[in-house]
Amino acid sequence: MGNDDLRSWYLALTNSGKQIFLACVSHDLTLHGRSAGLYLSGEKQARTVLGLNDLQHQISGHIRNLGLGCDTKPDDTFLDLLIDEAGRFGLTARLRQSLEFARSRDLWQALKKPGVEN
């Protein structure tokens, strides 16, 4: 993942917090998909959309497994998988932007209030 601070922060979240974080990442990635649909064409558009779809598939599956309490990939492995997949499709910068955006949301302070699990 490269950014050790972001990695450490993510790994310290509870499963519920990880679900919320990953849902925020996924939501932000959809904006990149919309942009690709509007401003790219041909092979570049197809490659970007395929890569974003793959990232969405990995993220949504991990959210589902966290919620169900199923065996999931270890968090470090999952984060590495996302970075590798993003790199394969030339989407590393977009994924990193979405990860940073999700972490920057104000909701994390609200979740730290007593009685609210994060």
Question: Would you write up a description of this structure?
Answer:
- The chain is an all-alpha fold and 118 residues long.
- The chain has one domain.
- The chain has helices spanning 4-11, 15-39, 42-68, 75-88, 92-104, 107-111.
Summarize it.
This protein is mostly helical. Helix content is 78%, strand content 0%.
Spans where pLDDT lies below 50 across 5 or more residues: none
Number of individual domains: 1
Strand count, sense and closure of the main sheet? none
| Global structural class | mainly alpha
Strand content: under 5%
Helix content: over 70%
The H/E string reads HHHHHH
Query: Count of DSSP E strands?
Result: 0
- The total of helices stands at 6
> Over all CA atoms, what is the radius of gyration?
15 Å
Shape: globular
Average predicted confidence as pLDDT: 89
| Distance N to C terminus | 22 Å
